[in-house]
Amino acid sequence: MAPGPVAQVVDVPNHAGADRYSPHGVDSSGSFVNEQGNILRLRSACPGDVHDIVCVGFGPASLAIAIALHDKLCAEENSENVGLSPPPTVRFLERQKSFKWHAGMLLPGAKMQISFIKDLATLRDPCSHFTYLNYLKKHDRLVQFVNLGTFLPSRMEFEDYLQWAAAHFDNVVDYGCEVQRVRPWKAGPGGKFDCLEVEFRNLCTGQPSSVLARNVVIAVGGRPAWPTVFPSFHERILHSSEYSTRIAQVLPVKEKSYNIAVVGGGQSAAEVFNDLQTRYPHANTRLIFRDTALRPSDDSPFVNELFNPEAVDAFYDQPEELRHQSLQKNKSTNYSVVRLELLERIYESQYFQSIKQPDKSLWQHQILPSREIVAVADMRENKRLNLTLKSLDPSRKKAKEVLNVDAVILATGYRRDAHVDMLTDCQIINGSGGQQWRADRDYRLKLDPSFVEDGVGIWLQGCNEHTHGLSDSLLSVLATRSGELVESIFGPDGRPTRP
What we know:
This protein has 13 helices and 19 strands. By secondary structure, the protein is of the alpha/beta class.
């Protein structure tokens, strides 16, 4: 492939979604600074030059990488052996117009499911500027937070922490940019591919563009899993990931007696089912799932060691069959389970209904276990949907039932395969011996050395559960994992060796 013209990335930060945490400008030395006056040590390459690293996506995983690299450079600057090579050049491409984290599930009263100590820095470096405790200190809430006597902050506050951290890197993030493909590229005169081209589209202008990088990290998170029985697009069907941002558009009258179905038996489904009862006090709600009952998540101390950073090594070293068995055995820590506190709250609400109405079939809020939705009909005349439910309980006399609903919320999880389409043009350099991509322990994909120069790499974050364990898509290991990835790419001093 001959080198060709590359559309240049404008080297000005995209502040389309900037908020109170956005940097204010530069200091007297010309360095980017944020509102607290902290120097922003990361920088991008000049237009047309090859970046050392481009991260696709700027959620918690990429943000943790930015923090780890920032901390590595800080440590080097404070040491006696300051490196002579220039700092790495980085760029983050994010589809959303501003930094957001699970915006659709920021529900009133919702709390984190892990300790605040598992933030983006503490387990790697408790002295980092980016710890949750330092965030609280900077916002004059540290003592008050201690008085709460909890390790589980509200989800709203944790997102505010993430936004505060993300704003430190606005100068190297392009928001509103959707990456479409990554492909091998030859920028120099050699016979092998010496970098990668990342093609993306500006979602505001529609303009296509691209940027070159020696290393590409794909950390785009999950895509909503959409059961095939439901139409791909329908104004009255929404995924839990967009619940709080879209539900008011779908059901605009809070006092109306809507009929609403929630599909799923996990934490998100339970949270939505519980929230609907307050948000729409006169609505009839139904929680539908295949299991025989809602089940509690197991976050007991010994089981929780599955999410220790060192547990990744033990899991990765197992044979594939044992990995699969381990995932199945321990799925109750993360999948189709609900925190006990919320389970008890929902059960209490169900009990109170039984005081006034012994007949469960007449309850305003019903839980329908052992059901599978087998058909969905669009009733265009009244803008409703008919859901045909099949009973999975052989003892039930009524094998099928039909629900007429105004809206459906699918709390059906996520797919983590966006990288497959993104890397279609990279199959020529796939070194895994097939069409599948395989990540090494350090999350680097196997590339064919006969086609690719040394120092060129593709890295996956958040989609390696089958090789790296249940913690791979969670916050638990981000602080440690990001430090490992930065060292794997740049070496112990955080400075790349460029040709």
